[in-house]
Each structure stands twice: as C-alpha cells, then as structure tokens.
Amino acid sequence: MDLDVFVSAHRAEWDRLDTLLRRRRRRRLTGTEADELVALYQRTATHLSLIQSSAPDPQLTGRLSQLVAAARSAVTGTRRASWRDVTRFLLEGFPAAVYRARHWWVPTALLSTVVAALLGWWIGTHPEVQAAIAAPGELRQLTRPGGEYETYYSSHPAAAFAAQVWTNNAQAAAMCLVLGVFLGLPVLWILFQNMLNLGVGIGLMSSAGRLDTFLGLVLPHGLLELTAVFVAAGTGLRLGWTVIDPGPRSRRVALAEEGRAALGMAIGLALVLFVSGAIEGFVTPSGLPTWARTGIGIVAELAFLAYVYVLGGRAARAGGTGDVAPTERSATVPTAA
C-alpha cells in the first residue's frame, strides 16, 4: 500500500471526523451530523486497522488512534458496570470459560492426582526419604495424634485462618493464569509444588498409619480448593499453548481473547476459593464427625461441577467464551487463514 496516496485519499474524511467531534463538545449534533459521525468513525477504524497491518506509521497511527477512541466514546457513550453485568458474568461468562477449558484442566487434575499419589507412596514406603525430610522426632511431632498436621487447621481463629488461606490460594491461582503466557513453564512448577506438599502429607501420615485422619482433614476443603487450582493451571497451560499455536487467529488476537478470559477466570476462581477457604476455616477444624465434614466437601465439589457443566455448557453452546462483550473489544479486520 502506498501510504502517501492512501493519506491523500482519506485525509478529508479524518479532518471531517475531527471537526464533528470538536463541534459535539460545543453543542448537540443534528441527526444528519450524528449519522455522518458514525459512518466516519467506522471508516476511520477500518483505515487504522489497514495502516497498522500494511504500512505502520507511528505518527499517523497515533493520530488515527486518538480519533477512533474519541469517536467511539461519542458513539457508544460511557458505559458503567451494573449488577446485570455481575449476574451475566457469574451465570454465563465465568462458567462458560471454565467449561471451554475443560479439555485442559480435567487432564491436569487427573495427572496431578496421580503424581501426588505416587509421591505419597514413594515417601510412605521409603524410610530413607522420610529421614531426608525431617528428623524422626520432628516426624513424630507432625504425625502423632494431636500433632501439627491436626492442629494446623485450628491454630488460628477461624475467620483469620480462612482469610489467610483464601488470599494464599487466590494468589497461586492468579499466578497460574497470568504466568501461563510464558509457555506454561511457571505453571508446571507451581502445580508440582502443590502436589509435592500433598504427597508429603500423604506419605508421612500413611507411614504412621493415620492416612484416614489426614484425608478426613484434607477432603472437606481440598476437593474444591484443588479443583480451582487445577482449573487455573489448565487455563494457564492453554494460554501458554496459544503462544505456540494460536490457530486460525493471529497470535496477537488469540492472546488478547484468551488473556481476557483468563483474567476473568481469576475473579471467578477467587470466589470459588473463598468458599473453600471458609470450609477450611470453619468446617475442617470443627467437631463434626469425619463423614459429615467430608460430605460437606463432596457437596461443594459436586455443586461446582454442576455449575460448570450445566450453566457453563449451556452458555458455551450459545457462543459464550468468557471474553468481554464484542462491543467492548478493539476493532479488527479479517485476516486470511
């Protein structure tokens, strides 16, 4: 594309759009002027996309970007978030995003569980590995009745403990989602650290003959908590794969779409982890029998899965992706496959 010829052909349209925007600041536009502003906005947005893709010029791109942004604000107006947006996010956007990522986080959950079980078996059946973790006296202090594994969940006031757990887990989930763009490698490390901690607990408590006690303490909150971590890790891995293979979309567009959906999932998963943190703070250390505490955890897990597969599946089949609404995205031009 000859940039000078293109500018000469369309400069009058850009100047006219600028004039209408200035006039709009002083008085209300007539109906004809408003229609003209909309048409010029659409044309200028297309011109900007063409210049960015074919003959990028920093000065011209800057001017047109300012014109398009000002015109878009004039055409669409200032949009404020409402409770309707919150409801749409919770009933459509978030569950649809989790449902769409199921082919990543479900295998991640299965493989991670196998890794944790193998680590627990290895630690529990090899005394030399246990000796490398801590001294015998320290291990007894951890695993004995009333030891640190049991008192950990009641060592602080329930509300403060729940808030601390929620904050830590939400940060870990957000890191998985954000750092996934680095080809998913940081996500694998974060996931392995979580499975290693779980495997150590399984191994040490099973070697002391108290695995049932350990699972009774972990399962009430751990089912939902680990599912949220697996969802975050799987989504982060998918984001990393998008860098490698964006599919029919351009890499920039693919990363923008998947990245926005991932950031929205961070908010949704923070709510999920708030529930698991409340269970860990109030239910896990409670005096309820093991079957009751575990039952609460199973109900919470099944409720989340039903939420994802029923509401999320319905929203995804209707076209929901978890991305922002089309009207809030940057304008793009079609690209060849």
Summarize the structure.
The chain is 80% helix and 0% strand. It is mostly helical and 337 residues long. The two termini are 21 Å apart.
Strand content: under 5%
Kindly, what is the distance between the CA atoms of the first and last residues, rounded to a whole number of angstroms?
Answer: 21 Å
- Radius of gyration in whole Å, from Cα? 27 Å
Largest sheet: none
| Unreliable stretches covering 5 or more consecutive residues | 329-337
Helix count? 13
Structural class: mainly alpha
- What's the mean pLDDT score? 86
Order of helices and strands: HHHHHHHHHHHHH
Number of strands: 0
Tell me what you see in this structure.
The protein has 13 helices and no strands. It is an all-alpha fold. The protein is elongated.
Task: For the structure shown, list the relevant keywords.
337 residues, mainly alpha, disordered C terminus
